[in-house]
């Protein structure tokens, strides 16, 4: 396991200070650290100032030693919905006008609650008050369930609370198999289907309470369909995974050339820790560590290893991301996380704090894709890793970790830390495309069916079905239009179709679905194909690639794209025995299209939808060469599904990049942290798919900031999807398309469009395609003709993390593209600003420039000269209005984006 934590504190200097008895010193510019004889940290300086410390810091950890299971689960809550039972309340986790769908009924003298109803998805029942549950315990959620038809199913929502009753659902990791929703702000599990229609069935699901969680609230609702019934709802506590502290009782520290080495050992657990702190040429401190199993014989290990930099951060500012800051208060912990295998994982590769323009950050190398989490408190920064170790061929196991600490300067918080981080990893952020060839993401219309004068729309990246990418006439037309040809693939699953099923409930039992795969693999005579390969080869590849969960199951999902399908989750690691999912993907899907291709489009680079599983299959663990983690529910070493996906993307990227080809990824959330070093074109499918439309602001600013950070100056192209699986919806208006384009323009994103509604029949296959002929897109041609060249101009100038412009109105959003040379030489670059009013009311503000890298200081008492680059928007610069010395007044209409150019005075 390779985790690299870099301590890059401006220019760091590790010196003994304050009379500490130092065993080792490191010096790297503006920061100093002194190591005591036991390897702890007695003193530290930043920019010549002593940093107050809260304790010795250093490494510690927790060893997970297995489950404590009581003989019988302890019943904590039961509600049969009788008159004297516990109180409950109707709940709605989706917005509808028809009211809340939950009513108490009786049948044969037994009460129950009917949840949901027509157009009331996400409605149901909820506990009237949170239930106290011990942290770490396994909660078994049970109810009697019944659905009236094959289209109806359940969703369960959970909210989590701390010891003081505060809702911390967003701050703690979702248990394995559950997913966090940024829309309902819950941990949820959906598409729950009983194994019979019209009959009562027992339904049961386990949720492991995360650390720091002391209570939960459960809601059972309708996911889709007519309605669903809930009876005899209960929650039981079945035990937890036991843990013990990992204490290193034997500690040595010694100075070597340019580094300090630690040698620690735990006599109790027979685990050694070796770590080296090195001052590097880029003024950071790199820490490389190794955990080694010294037991005889070696045994499986599940260890949560921590390192704490014990700086007293009271009254410092923690920078959550590029637009959200919090002052560090006592008794509060801060983190920006997602969850994987029940563990917290930081969304960004570093955490940054600052005080009066001087900052300190801790994180990992940009190219180190690891399960690692950082938390900040007034007692310091702690970074931790879930480490799994397994003996291989009877030999002792080890795990390699690395991290970094670095300083930064600047009064732009997270943005200043990002500028420093980009400089340290400049090679990893290099672009393989140029703005002249960049533009919109095109799917699924082939080039031969595009509208007249298709070049008006700025199309650039064609997500091509492999069969069409191989056709020379389509390739020729794509070349004429200057499109990148990017054949589609999605190697994280294999859909097994069941055309006769009209709902998930009508699929055969899971063992029969698996038996069908085995029969296909044995049938070498048939001429049938599956995933473009002979069916028996594809079926054998599926069987070889099926992960195995700690519960002894092969993970899967059920979905419908034309027909209901069982979607096997697959391990796409190319190192598996062949045939495997990776080998048939290349041999039968991608290779035939490579002669015409400029790269590959990778779909579903997302955690919850594609790779949310934990794999303990021995054959898969034997060939895996990355870092192991462990399953928080069972404390078993293994591999998270994201790590398998990364192995495939890394393998494919190395093949393509060696040939000058590119990778285009459909990326969401935490998957950016793993795939961003490999992907060349970023983007996501966006939109409400016909429900809960929010065209005014198609994505949250937080989600756009995450994508902009990881892409840096590489292109971001999103793809709008508006349509409905269940019934047709009206097409978007021209005003709604204009809102979408304006939103994307602000961030320098290319506004791709697939569908805008207006379909005549339900089902994805019947959705109208925006760029097929002139049916819908011609109305909006002029919007794209103006916006796309301007977006290219922004990307040519280059996005800059520090904006260089301030405002007196916090609602106004500002980004910068480009920079000016020393002295403001107008020929040394172009300085552009995008301003956006995300609200529904007119906005007025004063803006002014503040010098930073690429924005030279203006002469005293000089007002910035700004001009608008968008047609008809000169009025945003309010002439004749005094905003103050050096300030410019601006006025933006609701949802308006403007682009301003700075002219040097």
Structural overview:
Among the domains are: 194 residues, no CATH class; 171 residues, Galactose-binding domain-like (Jelly Rolls), CATH 2.60.120; 101 residues, Immunoglobulin-like, CATH 2.60.40. Helix content is 15%, strand content 37%. With 905 residues, it is mainly beta. The two termini are 54 Å apart. The protein has 13 helices and 58 strands. The strands form 12 sheets. Strands 1, 21, 22, 23, 24, 26, 27, 30, 31 and 34 form a 10-stranded mixed β-sheet that branches.
In a few lines, what is going on in this structure?
Keywords: Signal. The chain is mainly β.
CA distance, first residue to last residue: 54 Å
Total number of beta strands: 58
Whole-number mean pLDDT: 90
C-alpha-based Rg, rounded: 28 Å
Helix-residue proportion: 10-25%
Helix-strand category = mainly beta
Distinctive features:
10-stranded mixed beta sheet; Immunoglobulin-like; signal; 10-stranded antiparallel beta sheet; mainly beta; 13 helices; Jelly Rolls; 905 residues; disordered N terminus
Show the helix and strand layout:
Layout: E1 5-8, E2 12-13, E3 24-28, E4 31-35, E5 43-46, E6 49-50, E7 58-68, E8 74-79, E9 88-92, E10 102-107, E11 110-115, E12 123-127, E13 131-132, E14 137-146, E15 153-161, E16 179-181, E17 186-192, E18 201-208, E19 215-224, E20 228-246, E21 250-256, E22 259-266, E23 271-279, E24 285-293, E25 301-309, E26 317-319, E27 325-327, E28 337-340, E29 343-346, E30 350-355, E31 358-364, E32 373-377, E33 380-389, E34 398-409, H1 414-424, E35 440-442, E36 459-464, H2 466-469, H3 472-480, E37 484-489, E38 493-497, H4 510-522, E39 529-530, E40 533-534, H5 535-545, E41 556-561, E42 563-569, H6 581-590, E43 599-605, H7 607-611, E44 614-615, H8 618-623, E45 629-631, E46 636-640, H9 641-658, E47 662-667, H10 671-675, E48 685-686, H11 701-711, E49 717-722, H12 734-747, E50 750-756, H13 781-797, E51 799-800, E52 805-807, E53 813-817, E54 832-836, E55 843-849, E56 865-868, E57 888-892, E58 897-903
Parallel strand pairs: 1-34, 35-36, 36-37, 37-43, 43-47, 48-49, 49-50
Antiparallel strand pairs: 1-31, 2-3, 3-4, 4-5, 5-6, 7-20, 7-25, 8-20, 9-12, 10-11, 11-20, 12-19, 13-19, 14-18, 14-20, 15-17, 15-19, 16-17, 21-22, 22-23, 23-24, 24-34, 25-33, 26-27, 26-30, 28-29, 30-31, 31-34, 32-33, 38-42, 39-40, 41-42, 44-46, 45-46, 51-53, 52-55, 53-54, 54-58, 55-57, 56-58
């Amino acid at each position: 396991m390779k985790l690299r934590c870099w301590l890059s504190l401006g220019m760091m200097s590790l010196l003994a200070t304050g009379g500490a008895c130092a065993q080792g010193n490191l010096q790297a510019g503006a920061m100093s650290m002194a190591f005591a004889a036991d390897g702890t940290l007695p003193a530290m300086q930043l920019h010549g100032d002593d940093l107050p410390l809260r304790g010795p810091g250093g490494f510690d950890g927790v060893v997970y030693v297995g489950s404590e299971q009581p003989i019988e689960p302890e019943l904590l809550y039961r509600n049969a919905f009788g008159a004297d039972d516990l109180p409950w309340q109707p709940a709605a986790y989706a917005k509808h006008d028809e009211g809340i769908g939950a009513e108490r009924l009786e049948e044969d003298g037994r009460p129950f609650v009917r949840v949901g109803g027509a157009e009331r998805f996400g409605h149901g029942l909820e506990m009237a008050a949170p239930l106290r549950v011990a942290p770490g315990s396994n909660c078994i959620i049970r109810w009697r369930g019944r659905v009236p038809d094959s289209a109806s199913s359940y969703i369960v929502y959970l909210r989590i609370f701390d010891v003081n009753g505060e809702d911390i659902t967003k701050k703690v990791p979702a248990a394995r198999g559950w997913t966090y929703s940024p829309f309902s702000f819950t941990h949820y599990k959906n598409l729950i289907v009983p194994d019979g229609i019209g009959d009562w069935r027992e339904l049961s699901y386990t949720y492991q309470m995360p650390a720091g969680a002391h209570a939960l609230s459960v809601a059972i609702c309708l996911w889709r369909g007519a309605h669903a019934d809930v009876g005899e709802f209960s929650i039981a506590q079945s035990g937890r995974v036991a843990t013990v502290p990992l204490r290193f009782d034997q500690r040595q520290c010694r100075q070597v050339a340019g580094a300090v080495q630690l040698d620690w050992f735990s006599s109790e657990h027979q685990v050694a820790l070796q770590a080296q702190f090195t001052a590097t040429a880029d003024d950071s401190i790199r820490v490389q560590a190794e955990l080694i199993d010294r037991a005889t014989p070696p045994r499986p290990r599940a260890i949560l290893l921590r390192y704490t930099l014990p700086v007293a951060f009271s009254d410092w500012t923690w920078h959550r991301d590029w637009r959200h800051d919090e002052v560090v208060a006592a008794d509060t912990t801060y983190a920006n996380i997602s969850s994987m295998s029940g563990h917290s994982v930081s969304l960004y590769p570093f955490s940054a704090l600052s005080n009066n323009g001087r900052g300190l950050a801790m994180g990992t190398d940009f190219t180190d894709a690891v399960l690692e989490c950082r938390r900040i408190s007034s007692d310091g920064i702690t970074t931790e890793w879930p480490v799994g170790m397994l003996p291989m061929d009877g030999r002792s196991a080890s795990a390699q970790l690395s991290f970094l600490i670095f300083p930064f300067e600047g009064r732009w918080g997270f943005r200043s830390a990002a500028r420093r981080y980009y400089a340290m990893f400049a090679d990893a952020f290099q672009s393989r495309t140029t703005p002249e060839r960049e533009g919109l993401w095109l799917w699924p219309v082939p080039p031969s069916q595009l509208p007249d004068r298709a070049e008006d729309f700025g199309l650039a990246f064609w997500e091509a079905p492999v069969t069409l990418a191989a056709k020379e006439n389509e390739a020729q037309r794509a070349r004429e239009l200057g499109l990148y040809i990017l054949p589609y693939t999605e190697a994280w699953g294999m859909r097994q179709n069941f055309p006769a099923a009209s709902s998930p409930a009508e699929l055969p039992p899971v063992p029969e679905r698996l038996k069908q795969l085995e029969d296909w693999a044995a049938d070498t005579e048939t001429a049938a194909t599956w995933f473009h390969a002979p069916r028996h080869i594809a079926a054998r590849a599926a069987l070889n690639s099926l992960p195995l969960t700690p519960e002894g199951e092969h993970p899967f999902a059920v979905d419908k794209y034309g027909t209901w399908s069982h979607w096997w989750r697959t391990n796409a690691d190319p190192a598996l025995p062949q045939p495997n999912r990776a080998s048939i993907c290349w041999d039968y899907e991608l290779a035939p299209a490579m002669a015409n291709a400029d790269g590959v489009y990778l779909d579903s680079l997302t955690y919850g939808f594609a790779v949310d599983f934990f794999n303990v299959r021995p054959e898969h663990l034997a060939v895996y060469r990355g870092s192991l983690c462990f399953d928080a529910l069972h404390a078993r070493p293994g591999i998270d599904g994201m790590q398998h996906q990364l192995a495939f993307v890394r393998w494919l990227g190395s093949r393509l990049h060696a040939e000058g080809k590119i990778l285009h990824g459909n990326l969401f959330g935490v998957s950016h942290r793993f795939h961003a070093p490999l992907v060349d074109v970023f983007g996501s499918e966006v939109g409400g798919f016909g429900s809960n439309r929010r065209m005014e602001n198609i994505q949250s600013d937080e989600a756009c900031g995450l994508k902009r950070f990881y892409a840096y100056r590489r292109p971001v192209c999103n793809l709008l999807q508006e349509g409905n699986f269940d019934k047709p919806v009206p097409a978007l208006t021209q005003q709604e398309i204009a809102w979408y384009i304006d939103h994307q323009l602000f961030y320098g994103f290319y506004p791709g469009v697939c569908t805008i509604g207006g379909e005549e029949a339900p089902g994805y296959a019947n959705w109208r395609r925006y760029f097929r002929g002139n049916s819908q897109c011609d109305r909006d041609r002029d919007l794209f003709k103006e916006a796309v060249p301007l977006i290219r101009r922004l990307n040519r100038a280059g996005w800059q993390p520090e904006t260089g412009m301030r405002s007196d109105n916090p609602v106004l959003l500002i980004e910068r593209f480009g920079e000016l040379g020393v002295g403001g030489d107008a020929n040394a670059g172009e300085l552009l600003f995008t301003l956006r009013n995300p609200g529904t009311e007119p906005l007025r503000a004063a803006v002014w420039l503040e010098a930073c890298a690429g924005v030279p200081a203006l002469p005293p008492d000089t007002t910035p000269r700004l001009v608008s680059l968008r047609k008809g928007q000169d009025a945003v610069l309010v002439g004749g209005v005094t905003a103050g010395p050096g300030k410019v007044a601006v006025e933006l209409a609701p949802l308006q984006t403007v682009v301003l150019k700075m002219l040097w005075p």
